[in-house]
Amino acid sequence: MTDADRFAGGAGRSRPPGLPALLSSDRLGALPTPSLILDEARMLRNIDRLRARLAPHGVVLRPHLKTAKSVEVARRVLADGTGPATVSTLKEAEVFAAAGVRDILYAVGIAPQKLDRVLALRAAGCDLSVILDSREQAEAVAAAARRADDPIPVLIEIDSDGHRGGLRPEDPALIGIGRLLYAGGAALRGVVTHAGESYGVAGEAAHAAFAERERAAAVAAAEALRAAGLPCPVVSVGSTPTAHAARDLTGVTEVRAGVYVFFDLVMAGIGVCSTDDIALSVLATVIGHQRERGWILVDAGWMALSRDRGTANQAVDQGYGLACDVEGRVIGDLILAAANQEHGILALRPGSTGLLPDLPVGTRLRILPNHACATAAQFDGYAVLRADGAAPLAQWSRFGGW
Amino acid sequence: MTDADRFAGGAGRSRPPGLPALLSSDRLGALPTPSLILDEARMLRNIDRLRARLAPHGVVLRPHLKTAKSVEVARRVLADGTGPATVSTLKEAEVFAAAGVRDILYAVGIAPQKLDRVLALRAAGCDLSVILDSREQAEAVAAAARRADDPIPVLIEIDSDGHRGGLRPEDPALIGIGRLLYAGGAALRGVVTHAGESYGVAGEAAHAAFAERERAAAVAAAEALRAAGLPCPVVSVGSTPTAHAARDLTGVTEVRAGVYVFFDLVMAGIGVCSTDDIALSVLATVIGHQRERGWILVDAGWMALSRDRGTANQAVDQGYGLACDVEGRVIGDLILAAANQEHGILALRPGSTGLLPDLPVGTRLRILPNHACATAAQFDGYAVLRADGAAPLAQWSRFGGW
């Protein structure tokens, strides 16, 4: 059986019992480069880790599907495949609803022009909720809810760290917006916050402090709404760093996280995972050398890795990605130091005392990404190293757009 | 006729004579956000400008199609729609060959594993040429050429500015590789260079200096090959900055350029165009405010604009993009100062003495991108404001992948 046969075999065939799993180098041999590789065993381990961590807290986990944008991944991330889930675009909501997800939070402030699509999804049986932080939005949602005779569920966005949108919990506008929704025909479902600033600090203690800021802000807002006689059944918090570090979730009903499913170098750099947990990599081929400059050129540039430089301000700058051999083992200090559209330049990290490895033209490598959401978005599918070690790679499609 | 009707009308219908062109705000009204807007009139002006500039030099223009990745754009960029053209991936070569382009240069160093696809395209009637800069690659290409009995045309990559790959023209390996190809069964078509460093300097004089470095290096390499008794019919140079500034092209046979078709803020920042020449923008909607911080939130983050921060080191840092009103007129110093996946934060450029404009929730804006290649790659199509001012937008698809 050739590599091409193995690949063409697609998903479904399992490894015969008793046979050893093939090496990744054999399983990836027939893929064109660059390709996006997903290590399913690592992904399943990451999924299990957060489930196990949150179980004792008695909260609902509402995974964010914006990283993977894949129905196959969603089936493995969601508890029973139907939700609850979080999305960042209405396109995601539409694709996942069509695939059977029934409880979706669209977690970007609603624009009035998007309410027709929200209503259509709800009319088709998906419990889609929206978020907002202004009277203008609340009036538009309430008007749409009355027009359609559908009490669109709304969570008010709370600002817990100054990162982007949301009301501070003590802002009197909170109660005004809550009343406007409640009286206006929408359903006031709760409050939602996200400590995006937690990505900028390292270590579990620092993430736990941001988790407490999320909890404190969301619970304070919920209590203010309830004190005003308004309903607030849902108190939703989360980010990948805070979800893995939160010590006390009293008053919280659900936790959101997204990138934990794949992890990436940014998350490794702040201590949420190790590089061995990163499930996503870009398969690349060596296409040249500039030996006197210490450069190895590969056919994966920023079109494959994305322009994300999320580790630039971390303790260890990984350039555009960290090189591994084709089995997924990190190669010393070899990073994608520079990237043009379809060219990547591998070089030793500045200050490294290592030796540049000898990688002839045609050598295949795997490059770990800074930011899984951004790198995955450059591809329309995953070549999946199956967790059971089966020889054929699975091909899982992913989608983009809005 | 509603906006939706106009949009659904698609391409083909022209504006009745005598009627004024509709405002962009009317023509863009029904689009979802974010959407990628292409101003065809600006694009045609950019295409004409470079054609007119190069005509007196008597060189062939071989446009790079990696920016647009669109058959509709290629038809307008290529002289007669069949070539010559440059591409950055074999996927581009395959799509454009299927659309009738017959002369294509694949301008990324060839990996041996890709030669089967090269041969298949050539067997289907496309004159596809490849580039390389090592004996290992030359041996692989010659072997493939002999195996298929097809003299694959090769250009040897020359390094004119230390930017990435290529041989210095005085490198003795140049002649060795030339002989290996010539004797080995491939066709030695010529030399190719690209002064990528020209993007890092501003002003026509600086670009003209890089154009002369391209010319001098490529012509020297061609003369070295010819002096060794080897053929070198093609001497190919170019980048958007150097193509617009070259003063002397003696000895050069063809010029390549790509991003000039759309232009972008990086090109405006180094003086190759003005912001009024930029044909590409991202339509976005205001979704919120943090007034005390001077922030306006929009529904276009880095997933729409890309993570490209190409203006970060220029004299004027444009953040993730420069805001225009929906007609395409720049709004003072308003830039996309920060970007999350689906959130953009508009703010005044640091140091601006302007006033933050009052843009209520629901307001539509257009954001000019730093880097057209990177931003266009985030979308699967262009909503085209037709040059003839016709009301219906055209929808031109684009592709990604490898």
TrEMBL record, chains A, B:
Keyword Electron transport among UniProt keywords: no
Keyword Lyase: yes
Cited InterPro entries: Ala_racemase_N (IPR001608), D-amino_acid_metab_enzyme (IPR051466), D-ser_dehydrat-like_dom (IPR026956), D-ser_dehydrat-like_sf (IPR042208), PLP-binding_barrel (IPR029066)
Region (Disordered): 1-20
GO biological process, one term: D-serine catabolic process
Top-level taxonomic group: Bacteria
Gene Ontology molecular function, alphabetical: D-serine ammonia-lyase activity
Domain D-serine dehydratase-like: 279-386
Assigned keywords, A-Z: Lyase
A Pfam family of this chain: D-ser_dehydrat
Family (UniProt): Belongs to the DSD1 family.
Protein's name in the database: DSD1 family PLP-dependent enzyme
Lineage of the organism: Bacteria, Pseudomonadati, Pseudomonadota, Alphaproteobacteria, Acetobacterales
